[in-house]
Every structure is written in structure tokens, then in C-alpha cells.
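Please annotate this fold before class:
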Amino acid sequence: MVRTQEETRKIQFTGKSSYIVSLPKKWVEDIGLKPGDHVTVIRQGNSLLQIGPSKKHFAKSALEATVEVGTSDDVSVPIRKMIALYILGFNIINIRSKDGRLQTKQREAVKDAVRKVLMGSEITADSTDGITIQVLINIGELSVDAAFKRMLLIAKSMMKDAILALQESNGDLAKEVIKSDDEVDRFSFYIVRQLNIAIQNEHLLTDMGLVNPRDCLGYRSIVKSIERAADHAANIAEDVLEMEEPVGRDTVAKITTMSNFALEVLDDACLSLFKRDYTEGEMAIEKSKRIDDLERSVIKSASMLRNVNELYRIKFITENLRRIAEYASDIAEIVLNMTVEQTLRQSKA
């Protein structure tokens, strides 16, 4: 955490209409500014002036890092480091071999991860001795809010399709649901990357669709909840693939009711986030508690099954649906934390 620093500088008068003040050299260098760069001066109220780098400075600045890979390193080693650097906000990531040549399986794994995981990234150089990845998407092109809504839409589609695959005993559709989980992960990594950039450069918050730095922590937790909800949808699809026989019509109907309810709670929780509505967040939390009754209804309907393995699989499906509703409740809980001060101010007014 950066400590608050303070220095006293003397204001000088120059020309006929301007005042100048010098800036500490170390501060300027730490931020990455140099002579000739532009800064933005903002007046806040009647007693405060804020000086910061211009938006153009961050648009053109590029962080670069190099990951060295040994011949005996597992393919997961460079991928983990590459993802970590991406999330930290690096724009150029070089994957280089310590021994002069990357293994074929290492190169293929890195290229596959770039396609599946790193949103807005392209491979700009690819040879036997190394790979260069560049993040081409700009901060303003896809806001955190817009990326989150797309991520949410994919996760909800996964939930609906997983239940549809169960209704139709459709293995192909179940496989598509499992593949979609990678797309949710891509949005998750992208959003976390943008949040990390916003925390370091507060004046970019508005461009990203955020209100204040504290929102970054809340959004990160919410994104994790959506990612987990998508994981549970993928789990349901995997259960569908492993089923030996179709589930009874009555049981499927009750599972569908439970799934629709979990989706409603998720919609309510996310709507409270988009509207910054404390009251709707509270209502979503209370509503989520009814998921337990629906789960018991499904288990009771399926308890007459002779195939014990199928009974356990249905229990796994209902558990996944319950967890989705619980993650929705977690999202609403975070909305309460993000909006409680605003609610108190409105109450006093």
C-alpha cells in the first residue's frame, strides 16, 4: 500500500496570468512521467487542487515483462505466469526459453491459452526461441460494467442450456455448455485486469464505469461469484453426460422450477447492482432462502428411483442449483456493502 506523502513547495508567479509550482523529482519518476508529458489539473471544491497524468499518458504507456521457461518446465508454468502478468496490467508479455528453444508442447500450450483466456490479446511474434503476446484492447473500448454484463449473459445461458440438455438428454448441448465456461473465464480475467489498473490510476475509474476505488473490491468478489455460478452450470452439464438413462418427467419438471428460481434470484441480485439499490439487494437475499424448499421437493420426487447412482446424480444437480442461488445472495450482500452509505445519506435527507 502506498503511504500518503507530503511536501511543501513555494508557488511562483510567471508572466502576467500564471502561477507555477515545482514537483518532487522522485514522485514524477515513480509515476512514469518525463519532461514534455502533459498533466491534468483538477479543482476539487474551494480548497483542493489535484494534479495527475493525462489520460493520453496511460493510453500510450506499456508495461512489458519476460517469462523465462526451462526445457523441463511443465506447460502450466509459463501459462500461470502469463495470466498473472495479464491480470496485473502488463501490455507486452514475452515467453522466452532459458535454453534457446521452447518445446513444441510449451509453444502450443501458450498459444492455446492466449486464444482461450487472454481477452484482447494477440500473438505478435512466434518462433522456436520465444513468443510475444500483446494486449491490444484499450481501457475505454470495453468498460468493466459492459464486460460484466456480457459475462453474466453467458453464465445465465449456460444455466438454461444445462437444464435444457437434461430435459432432452442432449449430450451435444451439454458439451457446448462445458465449452462456454472458458468464455466466462476470459471475461473474468479481463475484468480483474481492468480493476487492478483502476486501483492504481484512480482518474480512470469513470472511464471504466466505476464510481470509486472501493467498488473495485466489490466488483472483484461479484465477478468471482458469477464465475463460480458458471462452474456449477458446467457441473450440471457433466452430470447430464454421465447419466445412464433419462430422468423422470416429474423430477425434471421440479429441477426446472428450481433452476428458474435460481436464475430469478441471480437476476434480482444483479439488477440491484446495476441500479445501486440497497432495498432490492435485501429482497434478493431474503428470496434466495426459498431455494432449500425447492431442493427438498426435487429430492423427494427422485427418492423413488431404483438406480442409486442416478439418485446421487440428481442430488448433485440440485446442490449445484442451490449453490448458484447462494452465490446470487452473496452478490446481493456485496451490493448492500457498496450502497449502505448512500442509503444512510438518503435517509438523513
About this structure: The two ends are 35 Å apart (CA to CA).
